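Practice problem: predict the structure.
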Amino acid sequence: MYLLGYDIGSSSVKASLVNAETGKCVSTAFYPKVEAEIISHKQGWAEQRPDQWWGHLKQSTEAILKESGVDPKDIKAIGISYQMHGLVCIDKERNVLRPAIIWCDSRGVPYGEKAFKEIGEEKCLSHILNSPGNFTATKLAWVKEHEPELFEKIDKILLPGDYIAMRLTDRVCTTISGLSEAMLWDFKTGDVADFLLEYLGFSRDIIPEIVPTFAVQGHVTAEAAADLGIAEGTPVTYRAGDQPNNALSLNVFNPGEIASTAGTSGVVYGVNGEVNYDTKSRVNTFAHVNHTPDQTRLGIMACISGTGILNSWMKRNVAPEGISYAEMNDLAAKAPIGSEGVSILPFGNGAERVLQNREIGSSIHGINFIRHGKHHLVRAAQEGIVFSFQYGIEIMERLGMEVKKIHAGHANMFLSPLFRETLAGISGATIELYDTDGSVGAAKGAGIGAGIYADNNEAFATLDRIEVIEPVAADRQAYVDAYNLWKERLEMYLH
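Answer:
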């Protein structure tokens, strides 16, 4: 008995096949092998063709079925993880009307800012828990103004995962979690955010049918089965955005539990059991995968755009030529905690939500031309990334979260011992590293939705914990001093 998980990213589409009994991944594949095309006709625009997602999904499915030799009839459920905040527009015949406007497209920003001001900050924050910002709803506002003839043809709007589910099952539906990431769910009324729809001039009819995150959401059609080589009638039983799904993959379900990722950008995602929000909207709050009308489970997300991208920039431009990331970590470790007074602000990858959408750029502070070398800069870069995480964690703590344990995948920046030790040192949290990824998590989520697993604890009982990093008490003050200096230098840009 097997479970199939898909992760629809902006760089690639990954598929994983998991043995439901052992919990082990038996095959995984992703396509394309080079980063997927992002269409950008103007600065700040980012679009992708949904049919290309489907094409990459088809290639990934074919690869795992061929490698594993699994009979498609033995696949009992399908789960979907997807890039968040995208906009797919379809007509009554379920044709896609234009390329999807994806998460990193910024054209919705002025619409979100205007709505936040005119509707009222308190109302937006108390109802949708965020500023309307640059999310799906405001991307649609751009379409309404700039492509009015196309807008009139829209029957339903979908998130990327909703589109893939539609292609698999021919059913048009979404979830509460999905609507919350689109800024279209009202947590006060427990319903679609009619006040925002009305303000933006959208009919409620554009919202698809709402289904539970864990449930039979449809069955694979004969057409999709023939196209992908899987069995007709296989149920789709789970879908979630990539960050909630990453938390699920790490078995983060309950209040106080934290999941973190640190790739090109970085995320600290914690579960809160109470409806709350940051009055400055520096962190985002969405319905977590297990949020229901009877159980409040909100994912509070601090996102830092400039994380791994800073480390890779240092590798290309500062570190000795030809050095590996592992060798860079060794180089950084030659400098002491705090990099002898050097601080790097990692915010060189666009506007940062955690800084109230300011774009302050990355900067280096405190260099002494006699004392400091490349090892100080490389260490200060990793410390600066960690300190930006801590800055977000402190906001989350003010919302009532107690951060004691951080779950992370053994990947990207978390491969660096220095990075892990610095995060444990400044946060005071234990860090647990696991061998998992989004597509494997989606497969296990499907197992929960199909009733194959009784709950998340059964689904993730076989999750491989690779390493545990405890904070070192003797180093605590050194990390605090370095962080306070870093924060003092950041505050110069925020006043």
